[in-house]
Design brief:
There is one protein chain. A hairpin with a 2-residue loop joins strand 4 and strand 5. Helix content is 52%, strand content 15%. It contains 14 helices and 12 strands. The strands form 3 sheets. The chain has a 5-stranded antiparallel β-sheet with strand order 2-1-5-4-3, with helices on both faces. With 569 residues, it is an alpha+beta fold.
C-alpha cells in the first residue's frame, strides 16, 4: 500500500455522505452523534427547566412583565374613587329624600318637637322607610338629641353590598398586615361609633346645609351624610345617614378579586405559552449546541474519524433556521477543507515519491556504474530530480499558504485593463523571442474592480505562460477583455495544439499536467489549480475550452485553446 493510499480511507466502501464503512459490524460515527443528541433530547423532555436557562429566562421575563402590569392596574386603579363618589352621591340623595319625607309631614305653622313626637311621629315615619341593607338613619333635633334611628334591611337589585368571599385578596391582605405590623404604630385614640359620627355632623348641617364626611367604624370605611329638616325655612331637625361599615372596601375587594383571578389565569397561560415558545427556540438551539459540544468532546478525545451532523432546521423561516443553515454550511466547508487537505497530502506524497524513486534508482545504479559517461548521465538525472523536488516543494508551499494569504490580504480597487496591458507588454516580449505573435484587444474605457491585484496578475501570468509553452514558432496568442453588465470576461487564446477533450475537466486539478514526455518534470501541475483558487476567491469563474472551426462539428481538430476568466465588477 502506498503512502497516498494509506492517508485517505474515505473510499473504503459505499455509505452515507460523511460515513466511513469498514465492515458489516462498523457503526457509523454520524449515527453515534445523532444517538447522543437524541438521548440528550429525551433526558431534557419537552418542558424541562433544569437544563434550559433560556427557558427559565423567557418564563421569568414574561411573568415580570405580567406582574408589573397587574400591580399597576391594582395600584393605579381608579375604581375605588369612582365607587366612593357614586356611593356618596347615592347616599346624599337618600338622605335628602328622607328629609323631604319628614318635611311634607310637618304642620305649616305649629311648632313641633322631634324628640317627644309633638307634631310628627318620627319612629313611625322611619319604620315606613325602605333603607339599604346595612345603612343607618338617625334623626337628631337641633341640639343633637337622638329622636329616632333605623337600620336598613332592604336589598335592591344591583346594590348587594354584603361581604363576598375574596380568597386571594384576603390572603394578600393578611400577608400585608403581618408584614407591616412591626412598622405600624398603634393609635391610642378610639374610633367613634356610628351614632357619634352621625351626631358630629348636626351643627354643620344646621348652619351650612347638607354635609358629607368619611370615617372609619369597626375597621371599615363609611360615608356619613347629614341634611337639615326644614319647617318654614328654618331647620328643626337633622337627618344623618351612614353607609354600611366597609361597604366600599367590600366592593373594591370584590373587584380586585376578579382582577387577581384573571391574573392567575393569565399567569398560567403565560407560563404555558412561554414553555411552548421556549420549546421552539431553546430546544432547537440546545440541539445545535449539543451537536457541536459532542463533536468538540469527541475531537478532544480523538475518538474515530466520524463527522458531526448538525440538525437540519433550515425549513424554519426564522433566525434559528438561518443559524442551522450557516452551521451546516460551515461544517460542510470545514469537512471539504479537511478532505481537500487529505487529498492534497496524498497527492503531495505521490508527487514526491516519483522523483524520490528516480533518485533512489539513480544512486543505486551509480554505485555499480563503471564508465564515466554513465556516471555523468546519472548525475544529470539526479540533478534534474533535485531541481524538480525543489520546484515541487516551492509550489506546494505557495499553494498551501494561498488560502490564509487570500484571507489576510485586503482587497483594493484597481484598473484591470491597466494591469493587463502591463502584463501583455512584458509577456509579449517573451513570446516574441520564441517567434509567437502576441495580440491584445482591450476596451478604451477602464474597468475598475475590487480585488487583490497581485494575485489576479499571478493568474494571467500562469495562463499566458502556459499558452506560450504550448505554442511554437509561427503561432499566435490573443489576450482580450470585454465587459458584460455586472461582470468582465478576460480571455487568453492561442493557436497551439489545443487540449485533449478528456483533459478539459482535469487540467484545474492539483498536480495534473498534460505535457509531452520530453517536458516531463519541468512543471508541478499546480499553476492552473492555484489560478482557479484565486479566481474563485474573488467570486469569479474560470474554464477552458478548445477553439474549433465550427461548433457543429465537435470532432474536428481544435485550432487552439481558450481560457476564460469571469470576474464580478
Amino acid at each position: 500500500m502506498t503512502l497516498a493510499e494509506g492517508i485517505s480511507v474515505r473510499d473504503a466502501g459505499p455509505g452515507r455522505d460523511g460515513d466511513v464503512v469498514l465492515g458489516d459490524d462498523f457503526v457509523a460515527p454520524d449515527s453515534v452523534v445523532e444517538d447522543e443528541v437524541r438521548a440528550r433530547r429525551a433526558r431534557r423532555g419537552f418542558f424541562s427547566l433544569r437544563e434550559s436557562p433560556l427557558t427559565r429566562k423567557i418564563i421569568i421575563f414574561n411573568l415580570i412583565a405580567l406582574n408589573i402590569l397587574v400591580a399597576g392596574i391594582l395600584y393605579l386603579n381608579a375604581s375605588r374613587d369612582g365607587l366612593a363618589l357614586q356611593r356618596m352621591s347615592g347616599l346624599v340623595g337618600e338622605a335628602e329624600l328622607v328629609a323631604n319625607v319628614f318635611e311634607v309631614q310637618m304642620p305649616a305653622q305649629s311648632p313641633v318637637n322631634i324628640v317627644t313626637g309633638d307634631g310628627i311621629d318620627v319612629v313611625a315615619t322611619l319604620d315606613a322607610l325602605s333603607v339599604q341593607d346595612g345603612a343607618e338613619v338617625f334623626v337628631f333635633d337641633t341640639n343633637g338629641t337622638l329622636a329616632g334611628q333605623i337600620t336598613g334591611a332592604a336589598t335592591r337589585p344591583g346594590d348587594d353590598t354584603r361581604r363576598k368571599p375574596t380568597v386571594i385578596t384576603d390572603a394578600l391582605t393578611r400577608f400585608w398586615k403581618w408584614l407591616s405590623t412591626p412598622f405600624t404604630s398603634k393609635s391610642d385614640v378610639d374610633a367613634p361609633n356610628i351614632e357619634e359620627l352621625a351626631r358630629s355632623q348636626v351643627a354643620g348641617a344646621i348652619k351650612l346645609g347638607t354635609q358629607v364626611m368619611t370615617g372609619e367604624v369597626d375597621g371599615g370605611a363609611v360615608f356619613a351624610v347629614a341634611t337639615p329638616i326644614m319647617q318654614g325655612g328654618s331647620p328643626v331637625a337633622v337627618v344623618a345617614m351612614v353607609s354600611a361599615s366597609g361597604e366600599i372596601d367590600n366592593l373594591v375587594m370584590s373587584e380586585h378579586e376578579r382582577v387577581l383571578q384573571m391574573f392567575i389565569i393569565a399567569t398560567l397561560v403565560s407560563i404555558g405559552l412561554s414553555l411552548i415558545l421556549a420549546s421552539t427556540i431553546a430546544h432547537p438551539l440546545a440541539d445545535l449546541a449539543a451537536a457541536a459540544e459532542i463533536g468538540g468532546a469527541r475531537n478532544r478525545r480523538s475518538q474515530g474519524a466520524g463527522r458531526i451532523r448538525i440538525p437540519d432546521l433550515t425549513a424554519r423561516p426564522d433566525e434559528i433556521g438561518r443559524l442551522s443553515g450557516a452551521l451546516r454550511g460551515m461544517v460542510a466547508a470545514l469537512y471539504n477543507r479537511i478532505d481537500g487537505n487529505e487529498q492534497f497530502a496524498a497527492d503531495v506524497a505521490h508527487e514526491i515519491k516519483n522523483p524520490l524513486a528516480s533518485l533512489r534508482s539513480a544512486v543505486g545504479t551509480m554505485r555499480v556504474a563503471k564508465r564515466e559517461d554513465q556516471r555523468e548521465k546519472l548525475l544529470e538525472v539526479i540533478e534534474h530530480d533535485v531541481r524538480r523536488l525543489d520546484r515541487l516543494v516551492s509550489d506546494i508551499s505557495n499553494a498551501s499558504r494561498l488560502d490564509s494569504e487570500l484571507v489576510k490580504e485586503e482587497e483594493e480597487s484597481f484598473d484591470l485593463l491597466s494591469m493587463m496591458r502591463n502584463l501583455g507588454q512584458y509577456l509579449g516580449e517573451q513570446a516574441g523571442e520564441k517567434g509567437i505573435e502576441f495580440i491584445t484587444d482591450f476596451p478604451d474605457k477602464p474597468i475598475v474592480i475590487n480585488g487583490l491585484e497581485a494575485r489576479l496578475a499571478q493568474v494571467f501570468v500562469n495562463l499566458i505562460s502556459n499558452a506560450t509553452s504550448f505554442c511554437e514558432d509561427g503561432d499566435a496568442i490573443r489576450l482580450w477583455a470585454r465587459r458584460r453588465e455586472n461582470r468582465v470576461l478576460i480571455v487568453v487564446e492561442d493557436t497551439g495544439p489545443g487540449i485533449p477533450d478528456q483533459a478539459l475537466t482535469k487540467i484545474f486539478q492539483r498536480f495534473y499536467s498534460q505535457r509531452d514526455a520530453s517536458d516531463f518534470g519541468n512543471n508541478s501541475g499546480l499553476g492552473l489549480a492555484i489560478s482557479k483558487q484565486i479566481v474563485e476567491a474573488h467570486g469569479g469563474v474560470i474554464w477552458a475550452e478548445n477553439i474549433r472551426p465550427t461548433d457543429a462539428d465537435i470532432t474536428s481538430d481544435p485550432l487552439g485553446a481558450r481560457f476564460v476568466v469571469g470576474l464580478p465588477v
